[in-house]
Every structure is written in C-alpha cells, then in structure tokens.
Amino acid sequence: MLITHNFDLNWSISFYSANYNLSGYQLVSPILGLTAYNAGKKTSNNPNSSYPLEVGIRSDQGSPITINFTVAAIRDDHVDPLCASFGRDGKTVSLKPPISPYLCGSTSNGHFGLVVKLPPAPPAPPPYAAEDGGGGGEGGRVVMWKVAVGSSVGSALAIVLLGLLLVAMFAKVKKKARMVEMERRAYEEEALQVSMVGHVRAPVAVGTRTAPIIEHHFVHYKPK
C-alpha cells in the first residue's frame, strides 16, 4: 500500500524549517512524501500482528522515483531551486540538483521539497567619519553640515531664552525693592511731618482745627 503526502507550504515552512538545518536556504514548495506499508499482513515473526508495517522502496539510478513540483512550487525564472531530501532522523537534509526544472529524483521513498539559496545579507553601512583632506562622501558632508547648523541655531536660541529670563528676574527684583521703599516712606510720613524748630529737626503734628480769629467789630445791645 502506497501513501503520498502533500503538506501545506505554510505548515511545511513552520515545521521543517524549525526542525531541520536549512541555514542559508528557504523552502519554496510544500513537502511531498511517499511511504509504503505491507497492508497489515501477518508476518512469520509475529503471526498475531494485524497492524500495517512501513516498508522501504528502492529503485536503481536508471529509473528513479520522480517528484514533480511544477504545480506546487513557487516559480521564479531567475532562481534555480535545489532538491532537498529530509532524513528520517528529523535533522539531516540532503541537497542535489533537480533532474529537470522543478522535477526531483530519488532512489528511495521519503519526504522531499525544493529550496533556494538565500542572498547574502548586505554589509552594514560604515559610520560617518569626520571630513578630512581626502574628502568624504557627499552624504556625509551634508549630514555634518546639517548637524553644525542645527547646533548653532539651538545654542543661539538657548542664549536668547537665558537672557530674557535674567531680564525678567532683574525687573521683578527691582520692582519689589521699589515697592518696599514706597511703603517705608508712606509709613514714616503718615502721622508726623518733620520741620525745623530753631536748629533742630523735630516732628510737627499736622493741624486739624481752624485757627481762631479775634473779632474787632461788635454790635451794641439795646434792651427793650
């Protein structure tokens, strides 16, 4: 009894890429498998057994077992995929060229797929170096110029804000001192005024009554 397997591409990637060593390669097809069983026939070693036993399939190099990925694989005319044979131990992977595009061959049953080699990762960009006599890249000079202008503008704004803050603090202190002086003067001059009495300065009370005036005219009273 022959049983074929056709795993979904997403499931194949999540399971086989996680368990098998596919470093530097990527699956572009679902995993296709072929297994054979003896259909549960009793054997001489265990005559009471009725469970199917897996058996191996072998073929010669002249007529290998072919696995066709023409429909199942992700096609890319610019990349030549390789045939991957996944071992039964769950770790080893064997790679070899296909018989023809998207057609793999094997001399035994198992699980197979197509993989492509991943392109090398691009090198990290070098850090921007300070401009020297040899001259750096145009991008580096532009970045350095922008940094210099930004630093100058930021410093100028900081100086202006600091100056405004100092002016505001000075004006506040001066206004407070003026108010204290005005209150002191008002308190000292509120009740008494200072005048010269001879050669001495002495406080003098402010007059609050009308000074009396002597009358020089009178009217004779004649009794009736």
How do the strands and helices of this protein lay out in sequence?
Layout: E1 2-6, H1 9-19, E2 25-27, E3 32-37, E4 54-55, E5 65-68, E6 82-86, E7 93-96, E8 103-106, E9 110-117, H2 138-188, E10 192-197, E11 200-205
Antiparallel strand pairs: 1-3, 2-9, 3-4, 3-9, 5-8, 6-7, 6-9, 10-11
Transmembrane segments: 153-171
Pfam family, one: DUF1191
InterPro entries: DUF1191 (IPR010605)
Task: Tell me about this structure.
28% of the residues lie in helices and 24% in strands. With 224 residues, it is an alpha+beta fold. It folds into two domains: 2-117, no CATH class; 136-183. The strands form three sheets. Strands 1, 2, 3, 4, 6, 7 and 9 form a seven-stranded antiparallel sheet that branches. A hairpin with a 6-residue loop joins strand 6 (82-86) and strand 7 (93-96). The radius of gyration is 54 Å and the shape is rod-shaped. The termini are far apart. The chain crosses the membrane at residues 153-171. Pfam families: DUF1191. One of its GO terms (cellular component) is membrane. Keywords: Membrane, Transmembrane, Transmembrane helix.
Q: What's the story with the biggest beta sheet?
A: 7 strands, antiparallel
**First and last CA, distance:** 169 Å
Structural class assignment: alpha+beta
Q: Average pLDDT, to the nearest integer? A: 77
Domain tally: 2
Radius of gyration: 54 Å
Alpha plus pi helix count: 2
Low-confidence residue ranges: 129-135
Percentage of residues in helical conformation: 25-40%
